[in-house]
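Data deposition worksheet. Section B asks for the primary sequence of the deposited chain exactly as it was used as input, without tags or linkers unless they were present during the calculation. Section C holds the resulting structure in token form. Section D is free text for depositor observations; keep each observation to a single sentence. Incomplete worksheets are returned to the depositor.
Section A, Depositor: J.P.
Section B:
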Amino acid sequence: MINFEDIHYLQFGNVRQQAAYKVLVKYKVMERLVAFDPLLAGTIPIGIDTPQSDLDIICCWKNKANFYDQLLHQFSGYGHFSIKETNIDNCESIIACFRLDDFDVEVFGQHIPSREQKAYRHMLVEYKLLLKYGEPFRQQVLQLKQQGAKTEPAFAQLLNLPGNPYEALLQPHTS
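Section C:
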């Protein structure tokens, strides 16, 4: 089982994971966000990314204004920088996007502990499902994603999960 709380596993992964590791280390992204308990989530850590996939880093802020200011201070000098405040699932959220070398990066923050945020929980469930069902299942997920499906709906379709795929994946019966 991979320890997703430490990005060092990426250096032993596939070519894209190794490149992601080099970029995150080169720009000290996780160190710059350490006060916000950053975790890399999404498709790259579990090897179901497409060429359009970005590096998703989730964070927990205690003070929204401080988090916002730190994102501006740390990353606004990088290409394609944008930052916005929004409300997701009735929770105040801040999203900063920018480009580092060959990767688009999205830093997502909420006042919810990082390990409890849906993006991280989805990734852990998806990882367990990939381990459970193996390479043929992974290839089916990738095929659906290459046809334009989002990750959670692709898993839900393959597993015949009813209802909202984002919620269905978090139900105990899926993992």
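Section D:
The domain at 7-114 is CATH 3.30.460.10 (Beta Polymerase; domain 2).
The helical segments are 15-26, 29-32, 64-75, 118-146, 151-159, 165-168.
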